[in-house]
Amino acid sequence: MYTSRRHNLRHARRAFTLVEVIVMVTVIALLMAVLVTRMSGMFGRGQAEIAKTQASKISQALTLYLIDVGQPLPEPGFNLEILTKRPDNGGGPQGPYLSKASDVVDPWKEPFFVEVPGVVNADFDIVSFGADRAAGGEGINADITQ
To answer: By CB count within 10 A, which of 21, 50, 109, 140 is most buried?
Structure first.
């Protein structure tokens, strides 16, 4: 009888109590919440950088298109999808200037647009409204203009 009691005590010391388990789960949950919050901020900044790169690429393609068609500036409301089309499909003479239709869509699945005259550049700007899809904003919601 004495041996089985000692045996039960030995097993009881090896196991975690309910309170210890609850504390460990709570600590892990808090750490995960902090990690997810920080990672989401990095993800948003990454998308903004991708949008800047895309806008710059579109600006270069549009400049080549304008040179090819002999226009100094794009017309207001210029449809950027023209840059993705071949000459026999309504694109510019040396088109396509961008390889795929998704090149004119920002990381938030909204189309870029052309602003004539530009605010940042004298001739034209390529603009995305950012993560909030509305004019203005700060941080990842700021407008992207190239």
So the answer is: 140
pLDDT of the residue at 3: 59
The tokens describing 27, both together, are 């600590």
Helices (H), 70-141: none
pLDDT band at 30 (very low <50, low <70, confident <90, very high): confident
Sign of the C-alpha dihedral, residues 64, 51, 91, 72? Answer: negative
User: Strand 113-115 to strand 144-145: parallel, antiparallel, or no bridges (unpaired)?
Assistant: unpaired
Q: Is the dihedral of CA 52, 57, 59, 62 positive or negative?
A: negative
Q: Report the chain's C-alpha Rg in angstroms.
A: 28
- pTM recorded for the entire structure: 0.71
55, 126 contact by CB (below 8 A): yes
In contact, 124 and 117? CB cutoff 8 Å: yes
Record the tokens describing residue 125, joined without a space.
Answer: 């700007």
DSSP conformational letter for 144 = E
Mean pLDDT of the chain, nearest integer? 85
Residue that the structure tokens 């407008």 belong to: 143
Domains of the chain (ranges, CATH numbers): 2-145 (3.30.700.10)
Residue entry with tokens 């990690």: 35
